[in-house]
Backbone:
DNA sequence: ATCGGCCCTCCAATAGGTAC
DNA sequence: GTACCTATTGGAGGGCCGAT
């Protein structure tokens, strides 16, 4: 029985594709800005007011007058409401793949818990075990693997022992920064996943996972536990047959993730505090800190062994590389402070654990091996990560 | 391979909203 | 009020999906 990770990172783009792309819609965002009030007594006979009223906005006179007014001691400010129309087109933003059925969604999410490597490859999965975790028949697993491959979510093959090897097609994009086309990822704990698996209806699953994404939106900083949605907004996320009555019926069913209530055409979602995205991230942070400590400890255990000619285990290859041997200096242990571990754990939540450990190996080879002091390990590691992203973009 | 159930489409009836 | 249009609802039925 392969062990599931306690947490999985799942790309937001692929989640949204699997749930179905939202219909295009426009949103009017209202905000207030402070502007200079020219009805103010001091302005009435002012030259600059006259200039602003007379000259075009692209003229020199106009812009000079504006900057004069900006610094005028007599100016009075007024609040003005501005409306901005924002167009939403998810197909452009997230890309398109055919949407999935409930068991396919569950299977796809489950795969992320089998610690894919940095290329998104997972080896030697047992179909029967997947079936137990999804809560379906083995044949359903095989059928859905086929579907997932057909829809280009994954590639897979069966080896001579009947075990499955998987490639998560978009995995590398999950961790790209926004300016490189990354759309971020959702942190899902094993416990949350299990509860999602308890949701039988496809419509409910779509609504609730969308709600998890909403609560993870950057403007909420992932802290909110309550969200309101109009039935109409929910309809936009669903196939056309999902009339308000259908939605209400599906949301009426028990859920152990959200408490749902209605008022007129507004639905109130309240998430179990345990599963607030922010809390999921706090817990995964603690887990990464523990894992890093263990990693450093194991690493140091290997230093003496490798120095005396022992062969290092595969997962430490990046640290004990042949390149280092040429320097003839013996390998040195790594001693990290609690704060440094904490910083690295935070970066792992942001960029993924593997990427951080890989960057740490760069620090080891280029700094620690030469006894160079590192004042701000977190800063250095994130600089290395960002430059890696830039490199990979040039290569592509 | 087959069968049942659920997802989804289609359609008609009704309710609600707006212009005259 | 009437005419017209849109939104919503419920139901019938097709067909695909998932389970055996």
Residues:
């Amino acid at each position: 029985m392969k062990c599931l990770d306690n947490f999985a990172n799942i790309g937001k783009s692929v989640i949204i594709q699997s749930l179905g792309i939202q219909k295009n819609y426009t949103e009017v965002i209202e905000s207030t800005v402070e502007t200079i009030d020219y009805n103010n007594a001091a302005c009435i006979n002012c030259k600059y007011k006259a200039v602003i009223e007379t000259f075009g906005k692209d003229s020199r006179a106009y812009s000079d007058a504006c900057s004069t007014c900006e610094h005028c001691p007599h100016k009075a400010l007024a609040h003005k409401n501005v409306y901005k129309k924002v167009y939403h087109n998810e197909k452009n933003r997230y890309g398109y793949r055919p949407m999935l059925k409930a068991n396919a969604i569950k299977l796809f999410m489950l795969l992320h818990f089998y610690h894919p490597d940095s290329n998104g490859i997972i080896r030697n999965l047992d179909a029967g075990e997947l079936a137990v975790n999804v809560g379906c028949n083995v044949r359903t697993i095989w059928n859905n693997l086929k579907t997932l491959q057909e829809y280009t979510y994954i590639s897979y093959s069966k080896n001579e022992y009947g075990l499955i090897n998987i490639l998560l097609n978009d995995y590398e994009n999950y961790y790209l920064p926004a300016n490189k086309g990354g759309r971020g990822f959702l942190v899902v704990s094993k416990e949350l996943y299990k509860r999602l698996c308890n949701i039988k209806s496809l419509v409910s699953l779509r609504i609730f996972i969308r709600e998890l994404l909403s609560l993870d939106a950057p403007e909420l900083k992932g802290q909110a536990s309550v969200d309101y949605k109009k039935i109409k907004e929910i309809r936009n996320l669903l196939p056309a047959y999902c009339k308000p009555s259908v939605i209400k019926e599906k949301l009426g069913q028990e859920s152990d993730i959200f408490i749902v209530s209605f008022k007129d055409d507004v639905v109130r979602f309240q998430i179990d505090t345990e599963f607030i995205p922010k809390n999921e991230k706090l817990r995964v942070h603690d887990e990464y800190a523990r894992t890093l400590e263990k990693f450093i400890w194991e690493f140091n255990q290997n230093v003496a062994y490798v120095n005396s000619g022992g062969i290092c285990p595969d997962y430490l290859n990046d640290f004990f590389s042949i390149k280092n041997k040429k320097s003839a200096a013996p390998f040195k242990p790594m001693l990290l402070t609690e704060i440094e571990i904490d910083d690295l754990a935070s970066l792992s939540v942001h960029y993924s654990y593997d990427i951080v450990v890989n960057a740490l190996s760069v620090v080891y080879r280029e700094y620690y091996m030469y006894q160079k002091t590192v004042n701000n390990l977190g800063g250095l590691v994130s600089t290395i990560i960002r430059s890696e992203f830039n490199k990979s973009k040039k290569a592509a």
In short: The beta strands of chain A are 7-11, 25-36, 77-88, 121-125, 154-158, 164-168, 185-189, 226-230, 258-263, 266-271. Chain A has a mean pLDDT of 83. The two ends of chain A are 38 Å apart (CA to CA). The longest strand of chain A covers residues 25-36.
